[in-house]
Amino acid sequence: MSTLFIANIGPLMFAMLIILLMIGYPVAFSLSANGLLFGAIAIHYGLLGPELIQALPQRVFGIMSNDTLLAIPFFTFMGLILERSGMAEDLLDTIGQMFGPIRGGLAYAVVFVGALLAATTGVVAASVISMGLISLPIMLRYGYDRRVAAGVIAASGTLAQIIPPSLVLIVMADQLGRSVGDMYQGAFIPGLGLAALYAAWVFVASIIRPSHMPALPPEAITIRETTGRAGYGSLLVVVGVAVAISYILANYDVVHPIWACALAGAGAYVAALADKYLKLDILSLLARRVVIVMMPPLALIFLVLGTIFLGIATPTEGGAMGSAGALILAFANRRLNLKLLKQAMDTTAKLSSFVMFILVGSTVFSLVFRGVNGDLWVESLLIGLPGGQVGFLVVVNALAFVLAFFLDFFELAFIIVPLLAPVAAKLGIDLIWFGVLLGVNMQTSFMHPPFGYALFYLRSVAPSEEYIDRVTGKRVAPLTTGQIYWGVIPFVIMQLLMVGTVIAFPRMVTGVLDKGTGVNPNAIHFEAPVPQDTSPPPDFK
Amino acid sequence: MQFLLAFSRLIDRLNGRVGHTVYWMVLAAVLVSSGNAVVRYVFDYSSNAWLELQWYLYTSFFLLGAGYTLLRNEHVRIDIIYSRLPQRTRAWIDLLGGTFFLMPMALVIMTLAWPVFTESFALHETSPSANGLLRWPVKLMIPVGFFLLALQGISEIIKRAAFLMNLIADPTPHHAHGTDELAPHDLVEGDEQ
């Protein structure tokens, strides 16, 4: 009996972990208790020496002095402050007006703002709640199909999970032993690709079912010239000039391309401010509003990602600079007060604590699990899969997709990824590619019914009872939970398509990295202020 | 039992106070870290002491805040089953989990970490990098953090037992991880993934 037990101690330990986790006691403590229990058993049978357990404080100390993980509280804090800074509201109002007059316009605006918020905050709850509170009532008012409205908001909110700077990528980089900067660069194309995919879906759906996403009626467009014109020409000119300036500066090696884009963006901002306060009236109202409202998020993107890619700041410091920037923005918008600050610090401290304690727990677990050769057991299960690399990736992604119904990404990343990473490395899989792939996959877990967090966030702010719209005075039916679930299904499918695409074309991730460190044309193109305007759909004029 | 409940309230107050104190270190860490990047870029100067201060601060608030996080029931659970169980069953899970999972783990790590601190203290150990900081203050955070966690564990066990004996109402704070009855104000305070 005991020999059978000893021979299978690894699998038993894993089975026990699953049982303990499913009971619902906090993950961090179940993990460490399971590790200690099996550690004691293994020591009792002489499989392990007691020094393994004595090494625990040293392991905890190693977690403490890990610079990468320090980025977690910074990006959390930044997101919490930004959530209340008024930035999202301003963006949604203005961008909604900009896209409003075309069919599906509000949906494009949600995707576009979702991607912008993702590149600044990395906080799904903040994006979904802002869009649910601001865009959803407008979409319902003007007759959007309810499932379309719910799906596009929930899905665009989850972009925060994959577009840098996201917590998923930080944790993934830590667990895979890769640099956060590389992970960010690798995730750019898949992340923006997803946003483009969502926009393409809106485009196609708006052609097939025009009634599902009507254009805003003229009376809903409030930003207009006194002459009644919409003012798109002026906006195009501003964008064109900014693109041209940054292109010239970058192409003739005047400054680094990131600086070129920053300067062009700042130039457009100054021009818009001058136009406004000196009453020059050169620009249309729309152009001015769009430029002014786009500036805070673009400045934050520069402050965080720009400084990381320029090599000025480490990802950790980038997070801290972003937090400082968010505080300044909230202060400038007169939203910063002691209550908000305390709430943000409180939530940040609690989140950091639970994340780090899961990490402590998973360290205890994996220390013992490796000690009893559990890692070899996992490897033997996975390495013999048919199909080599692709077979492994398909199985692992299917597994992660299913597990994501039950676990959230911190648990997946801290428990599952360390078990998989050595096998992936052995099969010759690039670990950045692997991490980004799992990141896209785990993003899905935020939106698939019935447990995706994004769905809960949307449910919590969507109307659950019939209400009277304050503009039209008509009765509006509530948004049902079923409509939210059906609405996200097309996006879950798109998500899986992207997983498949990244498996098929690893160069989407690694192509950016091959060119070496430092100046990186591909990455730069994507986080440049002005070219962001290329992600909206092709039919926009 | 009344005595134990009074003890539990005392612990709750202590950890509540600790939590509200240490969260200021979040702001301090933000300022120190962004300051480091700016100073290095502008003045081409960097100091190991300031770099280490970043993670000293981080470590302090996440370790010392562990008990506070437990008090607020924010240590994340897989609640796919848990959230559907009756209140009393949940109280049993928390009572047994606290006794057999949390307490042994917190006490083992606390006990093992104490000599690590005393040794560092006796040797005046400093960081291996030039101008680095003294090590013992940060090493002290491990046993203290796990001690506060264990204390809160005791308090939670007392509260669950009292609830099961029908002495008090359900002590579990409403928590916002993936449950159906979310209200917007909870999200703003409590959820940010």
Structure description:
- The complex is a heterodimer of chains A (541) and B (193).
- Chain A is mostly helical and 541 residues long.
- Chain A is built from 25 helices and two strands.
- The longest helix of chain A has 34 residues.
- The C terminus of chain A is likely disordered.
- Chain B is 73% helix and 0% strand.
- Chain B has eight helices and no strands.
- The interface between A and B is large, with 89 and 75 residues.
Chain-wise SSE layout:
The complex is a heterodimer of chains A (541) and B (193).
Chain A (H helix, E strand, L loop, with lengths): L1 H6 L1 H15 L3 H18 L6 H4 L1 H9 L6 H13 L3 H13 L5 H16 L3 H18 L4 H13 L8 H10 L3 H29 L23 H20 L5 H21 L7 H25 L5 H18 L5 H34 L2 H10 L4 H16 L5 H18 L4 H14 L8 H9 L5 E2 L6 E2 L4 H24 L2 H8 L6 H7 L14
Antiparallel strand pairs in A: 1-2
Helix pairs in contact in A: 2-3, 3-17, 5-17, 6-16, 6-17, 7-8, 7-9, 7-15, 8-9, 8-10, 8-12, 8-15, 9-10, 9-22, 10-22, 10-23, 11-12, 11-20, 11-21, 12-21, 12-23, 12-24, 13-14, 13-15, 14-15, 15-16, 17-20, 18-20, 19-21, 19-23, 20-21, 21-23
Chain B lengths: L1 H21 L1 H20 L4 H17 L1 H6 L7 H4 L4 H36 L13 H29 L19 H7 L3
